[in-house]
């Protein structure tokens, strides 16, 4: 990617983010009710999108490679268990990442 | 009361509310800076991106987007979908942010998950200017995040650290968000549908091209199955 393409990519992320934040204030300056389909998507879209993003993060994991996706599975189990137990977002993220780094660097070196 | 007095009073009221976010943002921001650095970007990238995008999960994702081939349409659509939740933050804040003058533009720009959670739930103390209170909560959050990201970008190169596997931080973050979303949702069809359609597209289109078709199918699928999914939502 060239620098210009990088800047366009970042600008589009800014634009998309700003749009989602300003749109309600532009569309509903007064107390107009939100269209039901918009309310519905607001309720159900996050669940679907976060599933998509977890799949996206794991898109390059190969079950037939030398590590068979074991480091990913173990680290995700650590993240999920810690999160359900302690509910400390940053702790779950850091612990899972450290476990993953240790696994790919020490147990399953490429 | 002078303006500077009003501002100081609002800042004093706002700061203690942001302390939990101070630790979280400095830490996650720092990790984000190191992550960008490990991906080969100078500290300018995390600094500018944390300042202009100011949406944590999207910034982590943008690192991957910058490393992939240039796909502007996919970038915009992905941003809109990942940040769609902000639409509802906005709807919730319509009333609270009314009458805050020009500050409102910055308040809306900085409406990230954390600023929202404070400004939506905390009532400014008696006698403290509402607009300036919201303003300082947002500004402090923004500063913590940007400071953490910049420091991470600067220190990332100096730390004698083998960063292989550090990219898992993105996976870990979305697993946590996914879990919290699952606990919050009264129905799980949308999460299951999203997962199933994503896996289908991954198998069918491959790792490099599955995002756009998956996003389109998820949107269409949710709208088409509205009567099925929504029945669950409204059920007691």
Give a short synopsis of this structure.
With 110 residues, chain A is an all-alpha fold. Chain A is 75% helix and 0% strand. Chain A is built from four helices and no strands.
Layout of strands and helices, then pairs:
The complex is a heterodimer of chains A (110) and B (236).
Chain A: H1 3-27, H2 36-57, H3 70-86, H4 89-107
Chain B: H1 3-38, H2 44-52, H3 56-67, H4 72-82, H5 85-93, H6 103-109, H7 113-121, H8 130-155, H9 168-184, H10 189-205, H11 211-224, H12 226-234
Helix pairs in contact in B: 1-2, 1-3, 1-8, 2-8, 5-7, 6-8, 7-8, 10-11
Structure description:
Chain A is mostly helical and 110 residues long. Chain A has a domain at 1-32. Chain A has four helices and no strands. In chain A, α3 (70-86) runs antiparallel to α4. The radius of gyration of chain A is 20 Å and the shape is extended. With 236 residues, chain B is mostly helical. Chain B folds into two domains: 3-163, no CATH class; 185-236, no CATH class. In chain B, 75% of the residues lie in helices and 0% in strands. Chain B has twelve helices and no strands. In chain B, α5 (85-93) packs parallel to α7 (113-121), α7 (113-121) runs antiparallel to α8 and α10 packs antiparallel against α11 (211-224). The longest helix of chain B is centred in the first third of the chain and has 36 residues, at 3-38. Chain B starts with a helix and ends with a helix. The mean pLDDT of chain B is 89.
* Main pleated sheet of chain A: none
Strand content of chain A: under 5%
Distance between the termini of chain B: 51 Å
Strand content of chain B: under 5%
On the 0-100 scale, what is the average pLDDT of chain A? 89
- Please report the total strand number of chain B as a whole number: 0
Which structural class best describes the helix and strand composition of chain B? mainly alpha
**What is the helix fraction of residues of chain B, given as a range?**
over 70%
How would the global form of chain B be characterised? globular
Q: What's the Cα radius of gyration of chain B?
A: 20 Å
Please give the share of residues in helix of chain A: over 70%
The residue ranges of chain B in which pLDDT falls below 50 over 5 or more consecutive positions are: none
Whole-number total of structural domains of chain B: 2
Oligomeric description of these chains: heterodimer
- The number of helices of chain B is 12
How many helices of chain A in DSSP terms?
A: 4
Q: Main beta sheet of chain B, described?
A: none
Which pair of chains forms the biggest interface, and how many residues does each contribute? A-B, 66 and 91 residues
Uncertain segments of chain A are: none
Mean pLDDT of chain B: 89
